[in-house]
Write a structure and sequence with these properties.
Strand content: 15-25%
Low-confidence stretches: 28-38, 206-219, 237-256, 450-456
Shape: elongated
Distance between the termini: 58 Å
CATH topology of the largest domain: Rossmann fold
Strand order of the largest sheet: 2-3-1-4-5-6
Number of strands: 15
Mean pLDDT: 79
Number of helices: 13
CATH class of the largest domain: Alpha Beta
Length: 456
């Protein structure tokens, strides 16, 4: 098990900037607005210079003065749990300030038995500020490091100390991890239940869940093992139409994070609110996933609320809703639909089961000889349809040239001779014969004048 190093501190001391600088990636959202980070962002960091790997975590803020602020209390409680779970804490202060809130955090750290922490006096951008930072040294149980996360000053010393400390504790795990986990991203409009689903699957209060829109801001990764499969669950901020979001504010950055999560995931679970039915924004998200050629699951959440509606035919409601979805997304007949209730913990593992199946389908490869036998039969049953102004379209042979997502290339006399609907026919026949459930297919025509189709 990897060691865990967690960055903590009061709001707006530069924790997320430090996290991004140490990992070398712009993972955490950074803004001048205090309290931007709300969840625990984790990164499997491999320190090549010091030859070990550990989990670096960016926590939400610690604020014990906001007892009436439900969100602040929730974030503080989650950060306190992260403190207990960590092997080493990086307590970030401002080099020239030690506030009453800092004093409260210090008392919490002192109360944790056998909990080691170091102090980073941040925003020390010049030599005078570095000297001033050492006035905080009396608070450190171990070490103090004047740093500037914005200028990458002093970060190397911090990394060397972390490596030395972890090795001394027997936590010197070498780089043995790869990114072969099955990455599944949960996306959807705000407040459809994404974080509730992730938390229920993982079995812990991993990301913040509140009955309000927009509580998740970062794209949060959670490592998880299910059915002997290593998962990375990616919970994302709710995606709204950009016209509804002010340019360059925190929510806009959250949406950009969600877009990146979509691109790096293998399978996307689009969460829709079953109680509200399908809206145009849901269809736009589904279309975006299809455009990215990702595996796709539609998760209809809050199904308990649907069944509790007066007069609902509970025995046939799933069939009716599935037929309704097919009308709405008739261009995606291969999509799996799962009906869930995060609050009642129903059918949530079905999402993981389906993701495993889709991942396998995306890696499937059809032998060229088998595919050409199939292709000959498909053409015999339905010869290629041409355009009005084209010559007779002909297909000579074909093969699968790629996986994840599957891609087929057909050698033809002229790609422009084919009616657009013929690809749809071939895709349906490919799925009928070879499967590829839950994933888009790509079919391309490749013009080759000199080849002719040879029948057996």
């Amino acid at each position: 098990m990897l060691a865990k190093v967690t960055i903590i501190g009061r709001p707006n001391v530069g924790k997320s900037s430090l996290f991004n600088m140490m990992t070398g990636h712009k993972i955490a959202i950074v803004a001048d607005e205090a309290g931007t980070t709300r969840d625990i962002s984790e990164f499997e960091y491999t320190d090549d210079k010091n030859d070990l790997t550990y989990i670096l975590a960016d926590s939400g803020w610690l604020d014990f003065s906001s007892e009436d602020d439900e969100v602040a209390v929730d974030i503080t409680e989650r950060t306190q749990r992260a403190i207990v779970e960590s092997d080493l804490l990086i307590w970030v202060l401002e080099y020239d300030r030690f506030t009453d809130l800092d004093e409260s955090i210090y008392k919490v750290l002192r109360s944790q038995k056998n909990k080691n922490f170091i102090i980073l006096a941040n925003k020390a951008d010049n030599e005078n500020q570095v000297m001033e930072a050492y006035s905080l040294a009396g608070k450190g149980e171990m070490e103090l490091f004047p740093v500037s996360s914005s200028h990458n000053a002093g970060i190397g010393d911090v990394k060397r100390f972390i490596a030395k400390f972890l090795v001394s504790k027997g936590l010197n795990y070498k780089k043995g991890l790869d990114d072969d986990t099955l990455k599944i991203a949960f996306i959807g409009r705000p407040n459809v239940g994404k974080s509730s689903i992730v938390n229920t699957i993982v079995g812990s209060d991993r990301v913040m869940v509140k009955d309000m829109a927009g509580t998740t801001r970062d794209a949060i990764d959670t490592k998880f093992t299910y059915a002997e499969t290593e998962f990375t669950l990616i919970d994302t901020a709710g995606i709204r139409r950009l016209s509804k979001v002010w340019t360059r504010n925190v929510e806009n950055w959250s949406i950009m994070r969600s877009e990146r999560a979509l691109k790096r995931a293998d399978v996307i679970a689009v969460i829709v609110d079953g109680f509200e039915w399908i809206v145009q924004q849901d269809l736009s998200l589904i279309g975006r996933v299809a455009d990215e050629k990702k595996g796709l699951i539609i998760v209809v959440n809050k199904w308990d609320m649907v069944l509790n509606k007066p007069g609902v035919d509970k025995a046939h409601m799933m069939e009716r809703y599935t037929a309704y979805l097919q009308e709405k997304i008739e261009f995606l007949p291969w999509v799996s639909v799962i009906f869930t209730s995060a609050t009642e913990k129903k059918r949530l593992t079905n999402i993981l089961d389906e993701a495993i199946t889709i991942a396998w389908e995306r890696q499937k490869r059809v032998k060229t000889s088998v595919f050409n036998e199939f292709l000959e039969q498909a053409i015999y049953k339905h010869p290629p349809t041409g355009n009005k102004k084209s010559h007779s379209p002909k297909i000579y042979y074909g093969s699968q040239v790629d996986t994840n997502p599957p891609k087929f290339v057909l050698t033809v006399n002229n790609p422009n001779h084919f009616h657009f609907s013929y690809k749809r026919y071939l895709e349906n026949k490919i799925r009928d014969n070879f499967g590829f459930a839950g994933t888009p297919l790509t079919i391309e025509y490749n013009g080759r004048w000199k080849y002719k189709w040879v029948s057996k």
